[in-house]
Amino acid sequence: MTRSVFIPPISRRSLLVAGGAAFFSTPGLFADELMLTPSMTEGPFYPDKLPLDQDNDLIIINDSTMPAVGEITHLTGRILTKAGTPLRNATIEIWQCDANAVYLHTRDSSQKKKQQDQNFQGYGKFETASDGGYRFRTIKPVEYPGRPAPHIHIKVSQNGHELLTTQLMIRGYKGNDRDGIFQRAGDLVQRELVMADFKPLAGSKIGELGASFDIVLGRTPDDRQLQ
């Protein structure tokens, strides 16, 4: 006699959200796996000329003493496989517009009436260690013309292979529901996977924020990159 297996529906209550990654399990069928971070468009303004300073601190350029304008945010997280294994030696890149809504891209900056913040790096990268962790110091993203949902662009690669391009949104932001690109990220659960809370950083005396966002990758053309 064939025995049926009851698979409970996934609800928001059943999701355990941890820094942007949600855990789910199907009792009796599979081991717990992480839900994959949805891919999203790269957009038109990946820097057309990368800055000389490409470190993970976007607030200070080189040895300047003048910081960028904006709400300083410490963005941290891990890059994981769907089995939860940390991905070592992965490169994560982030880029975003400055507090004046200008990207580090000549086509964008030349069309804007607002002055580009010369103290904002606009782009940074970080290579993960054995724990898969990454960290950046940047600004809380702001609205951009045509994009009512503030966002940070993210690209993950390893050994010359691009593994994922996505975007990070602010959880609960009023413009999210009007942002077509965010809405195309997927259903309610999938959209939850590309959002993070931007909260006051404990112990900060200058009003800094903290945001945690784990990135979960699936199979790639060369799956050995995820071993």
UniProtKB/TrEMBL annotation:
Pfam families referenced in this protein's UniProt entry, alphabetically: Dioxygenase_C
Superkingdom of the source species: Bacteria
Similarity comment: family membership: Belongs to the intradiol ring-cleavage dioxygenase family.
Name assigned to this protein: Protocatechuate 3,4-dioxygenase beta chain
InterPro entries given in the database record: 3_4-PCD, Intradiol_dOase_C, Intradiol_dOase_core, Intradiol_RC_Dioxygenase
Keyword field: Dioxygenase, Oxidoreductase
GO terms, molecular function: ferric iron binding; protocatechuate 3,4-dioxygenase activity
Organism from which the protein derives: Rubripirellula reticaptiva
Keyword flag Phosphoprotein: no
Gene assigned in the entry: pcaH
EC numbers, comma separated: 1.13.11.3
Lineage: Bacteria, Pseudomonadati, Planctomycetota, Planctomycetia, Pirellulales
Keyword Oxidoreductase: yes
Limits of the Intradiol ring-cleavage dioxygenases domain: 42-217
